[in-house]
Amino acid sequence: MILVTGATGTVGGEVVAQLHAAGVATRAVTRSPAEARLPDAVEVAGADLSQPHTLEPVLRGVDAVFLVWPFTSVEDAPAALDAFAQHTRRLVYLSSAGGQRPEPEGMFHADMECLVEKSDLDWTFLRPSGFASNTLMWADQIRRAGVVRWPFGNAARSLIHERDIAAVVVRALTEDGHVGAKHVLTGPELITQAEQVRAIGEAIGRPTRWEEIPPEAIRDALVSSFGNASFVDHALATWAGFVDEPEMVTSTVEDITGVPPRPFREWAADHADEFR
Fold this sequence. Notes:
Blueprint: E1 2-4, H1 10-21, E2 26-30, E3 43-46, H2 55-59, E4 64-67, H3 77-85, E5 90-94, H4 108-118, E6 122-128, H5 139-145, E7 147-150, E8 156-157, H6 162-174, E9 182-185, E10 191-192, H7 193-204, E11 209-212, H8 216-226, H9 229-244, H10 252-257, H11 264-270
Parallel strand pairs: 1-2, 1-4, 2-3, 4-5, 5-6, 6-9, 7-11
Antiparallel strand pairs: 8-10
Helix pairs in contact: 1-6, 7-11, 8-9
């Protein structure tokens, strides 16, 4: 039995789908089970990572946990990790590549990794590059006018499809040889943010273009959205860095799954309706 947190999210939902397709017993955890849209055969359970006492019932009989930490601080993480360790040894944590290296101390993924390493769990860290799905933050602008007003149009990213992240998650949860690994996962190519917008336009069959604006123009809105100014400043600095030093490209997805990762244009085609 594998417990999947964040089971209704972009990556977690895909992990549930792939585990189910592989015939692996799966328990999907969400704060709102009644609203979950998951395969009928998947067990759906309610729990909240910010209230670790709610984890006890859903952890019974679990052999491994896939952890998506949904907060930008780790205040409640030690208690959650203790709850996991009382029921299982195996944990796969969805971390972040943090640019060209792990995130600096004080950023929540780095702090989570430190806590997990100090725990009694047999862990694997997955450090993906930018999620292709993060470009959905431009969806309203594209639907309204076909113009994305955003900073750092020349920032070159190796964006990764959520299906490719999930495919590695499934291997790390169900195969031997991943304990103690820190896998850096990326898409197969570099594509600038301005090129991403054009690729989305091709997918929806409508011209789209990039309009460069200063980072200060979006900072307040991002802080309001994420609720963490340090997190936003780190993200803006990371994007700025990709202008002169593009994001890394690794072969890890293919090395682990045997299948090359999907290019961004394939992701854009898969999600075209969300931009129309």
